[in-house]
Amino acid sequence: MEPFLQVERDGAVVIATLDRPEMRNAITTQEEMDSITKFCRDMAADRSVRAVVLTGTGKAFCAGGNVKDMQAKKGTFAGSPFDQRNNYRTGIQTIPMALQELEVPVVAAVNGPAVGAGLDLACMCDIRIASDKATFAESFVKLGIIPGDGGAWFLPRTIGMGLASLMTLTGDTIDAQTALQYGLVQQVVPHDELLGTAKAVAQRIAANPGHSTRMAKRLLREGQDMKLGPLLELSAAYQALAHHTQDHEEAVDAMLSKRTPHFQDR
Predict the structure, then answer these.
(1) What proportion of the chain, given as a percentage, has pLDDT over 90?
(2) Taking the mean position of all CA atoms in its chain, how far away is CA 16?
(3) pTM for the full model?
(4) In what order do the strands lie in the sheet with 127-131?
(5) Would you say 125 and 99 are in contact if contact means Cβ atoms under 8 Å apart?
(6) Number of neighbouring beta carbons within 10 Å of residue 65
(7) Of 126, 150, 132, 149, which Cα lies nearest the Cα of 218?
(8) Do 44 and 100 form a contact (C-beta atoms < 8 A)?
(9) How far apart are CA 180 and CA 102, in angstroms?
(10) Cys-Cys with 37: which of 3, 98, 255, 258 at CB 3.0–4.6 Å?
(11) Cα angle value 139/31/122 (rounded, 5°)
(12) Domains parsed from the chain with CATH numbers
């Protein structure tokens, strides 16, 4: 069987595609979950990668968990309550931890329905571009369950507590234009233009030194839960590191010389 996550590279940008269209790219098996966390580790280790685009194959971005597995009580949903708790902790919950720790900026290209854990996966990314065919639902309550993958942490930080409560407690589906109004996505484009638009955003990020975008992303993430004083201390430390990079010197020289900079991730 082909890998769940198909990975290709375009310069400093990596495109990762969830590739189980027959399952609407549901994240089902431990192997599939591990492939995402391993991908995050690989991206973190490769300093030449400056941006990632995450998308799905076929008509869906990601349908979340496999409802048939829920009915059959297998995989993540097998065993006693204690077994299931551990399955979540060592399975699906490793994905939000991996994406939260990944300093490489991630652009989600939402090509179709992003449902349940699929919506939460999109919220784990830094920027979301939606096809006009995309839909979104925090649909867990429709199945009599709750967001088990960190959605109750990510969604309010993405669209605010009021709208996150509305989506979480109703489980209702919204279309791409409503998602844009909510601030859930930053742009809606015609379906055929989605991947090109997302890659263009990623390329604009990748045009900057990788060390500065990685540390800037880290500051944005840490700033969600830190007081101003500690954040300023972390910012000072990161800034000192940035000032001592060759890419910073190249950027300053290029700006003053009115030429295009050439960064070498040093």
Answers:
(1) 89
(2) 11
(3) 0.94
(4) 5-10, 13-18, 51-56, 106-110, 127-131, 187-189
(5) yes
(6) 24
(7) 126
(8) no
(9) 25
(10) 98
(11) 35
(12) 5-206 (3.90.226.10), 210-257 (1.10.12)
